[in-house]
Amino acid sequence: QVQLVQSGAEVKKPGASVKVSCKASGYTFTSYDINWVRQATGQGLEWMGWMNPNSGNTGYAQRFQGRVTFTTNTSISIAQMELSSLISEDTAVYYCARADGHNSVDYWGQGTLVTVSS
Amino acid sequence: QSALTQEASVSGTVGQKVTLSCIGNNNNIGRYAVGWYQQISHGALKTVMFGNSLPSGIPDRFSGSKSGTTASLTISGLQPEDEADYYCSTWDYSLSARVFGGGTKVTVL
Questions:
Q1: Comparing A99 with B52, which gets the higher pLDDT?
Q2: What is the DSSP secondary-structure string of B41-76?
């Protein structure tokens, strides 16, 4: 069965960077995009962007441009999201999610809590 | 301000039919299939409708539809375990971005 398993919770200081991993299994990793979505406490879902593991193409939401980087390692079916210059407002649960191009997301990771605090 | 508009809350009694709506425009819902996602007590996200398809393991009391720029999720025969937040999402052609609704809180009375 399709599974997306994310790395554990992180606590970072303002100005630092964080890298969240997403290990995919149960399907051909290069056949689907990985999207990244975050959710601050008590808030809705915010899309951060996508990456195609096959082509390496990426698309970033405008508000994260220049601060976020997506990478994949196709040999071990892992996607990673790195967010830099962290501020307290970046405190949120970060999700990876699978999608077939512009089609809807069908599978989600369990989420990774990132806390930014001095 | 979310690109897709959802009711803030919907409530119903056990066994009742409830319908959630998701209003967009011709750049998003008018062009692409819509997904619906359930989140119980701010926990993990679960896909309950994927385009016109019901994912494996999701009860068939959940159904989805779309008319023009409005998508709907219907729960026929509301159950206590359906109490959750529900989000709609699709791709937006003009924004080149995936967009979400603000979420609807479903309460089972």
A1: A99
A2: TT--EEEEEETTBPPTTS-TTEEEEEETTEEEEEEE
The answer to whether B98 and B2 are in contact (CB under 8 A) is: no
- Residue numbers in B near A50 (CB within 8 A): 98
Tokens of A16: 């630092």
Instruction: Give the pair of three-digit tokens for residue B98.
Output: 């995936």
CA distance A5 to A111: 8
Separation between Cα atoms, residue A37 and residue A108, nearest integer Å: 10
For residue B55, give the nearest of A45, A95, A106 by CB distance.
A106
Confidence class for position A69, pLDDT limits 50, 70, 90: very high
Token match 């989420």: residue? A111
Distances (CA, A) of A67 to A55, A62, A109, A111, B58: 21, 10, 22, 20, 37
